[in-house]
Specification:
The structure is a homodimer. In chain A, 68% of the residues lie in helices and 4% in strands. Chain A is mainly alpha-helical. Chain A has a two-stranded antiparallel ribbon. Chain A is built from 7 helices and 2 strands, in the order αααββαααα. The first copy, chain A, binds a DNA duplex through helix 2 and helix 3.
Chain lengths: 182, 182
DNA sequence: GGGCACATGTAAGCTGTTACATGATTAA
DNA sequence: TTAATCATGTAACAGCTTACATGTGCCC
């Protein structure tokens, strides 16, 4: 299991103890814009973390589910993982791949791709702004706020940049096409 | 083999016939900022494309290497793949994951992460500007230019946005920390 | 003749998703 | 009572990288 998965799980449990199922929901709903874990990752990883003494499993009595809680050792491990240098896997961007070879399609389909991206980014931007408002008003997690907001701010900056880029590129492709037609 | 790999290979060969080795070099050096393929992908994919009649293999006589060339059917397939909707794999951003759980580290290590990202983006930006100049002066690929430039422009926009975000976030974390110290 | 770049290919292994199996609890 | 949600887990598979094996041609 990759250490990133351990990091995400320990991070999640550092905020609140919860079941494996809830953990996955939290990862999807809260940090889903820049992270994801599937059940196939989470349960084996939880086993490993329990085996290492980083997480404690509190068996639910009959009816209730198990709750996983981070231990003191787990918090130490979390800090360790947070400091570990990033191993960046090669980026793959299917939209850019398509645009790069766009001459095989002509400008119109490419403009369509760009407009789809612009619209998606516009929607994202609205979402991020709503999340920002929510975090800024969250009294319960005052200490976390500034850190959480950096990730929201990242989303906002990237969405804004995407919108500007898409607009500009749509113009460029349209004008290049007119120039050819003359 | 994923269709994206087929797309990248057909795209590459649509510009110029070349060996599998050269193809990998081209993918790494030319579209490496947003795409990657390893030998373990390229050679089996080339076999598949040859079997499907999308690519022709011209055996090199003794000493020289094989040259792979796209066929008319291959160009059709390329256009088909370019129009195919994107299947986006979930994004994973290790830096954001670390920043999100940054409260466990405190502001200083987070500022360091941000400054690393800022510096990397600054370097990238310079690179993209050099590539832009190169493409704008390339008489041989006039038709491709506008499409290629959209991908360079993407890099520029993202790098600029990253720099702005990192600066702003470093300030925010520093100020939040001072506010706490009062 | 020794090292390096070019060239083709394969096998092992890692990461991660999807789909399935199974069952409890809750709400309609 | 039946459907949905919560919950845990596994097996199969897809995608991709790394490392290795193997060989050629070129340059110092």
């Amino acid at each position: 299991m990759s250490s990133s998965t351990h990091l995400a799980i320990l991070g999640g449990l550092s905020v609140e103890s919860m079941s494996g199922y809830a953990l996955r929901e939290a990862i999807r709903d809260v940090i889903g814009h820049f992270w994801s874990e599937s059940f196939g990752q989470i349960y084996p990883a939880l086993d490993e973390l329990v085996a290492g003494g980083f997480v404690e499993r509190q068996e639910g009595s009959r009816s209730t589910a198990s709750t996983f809680a981070i231990t003191a050792l787990g918090r130490e491990r979390l800090r360790e993982l947070l400091r570990e240098p990033l191993v960046s896997r090669p980026a793959r961007n299917g939209s850019l791949l398509r645009l790069y070879f766009g001459v095989n399609l002509g400008p119109d389909p490419c403009v369509e791709i760009l407009d789809d991206l612009r619209r998606a980014a516009t929607k994202q931007l609205q979402l991020y702004r709503a999340i920002r408002t929510e975090i800024e008003g969250d009294e319960e997690h005052r200490a976390d706020g500034p850190y959480w907001l950096t990730t929201v701010s990242y989303g906002e900056h990237m969405a804004e940049a995407t919108i500007a880029w898409a607009r500009q590129s749509m113009d460029a492709l349209t004008i290049a096409d007119q120039g050819k037609a003359e």
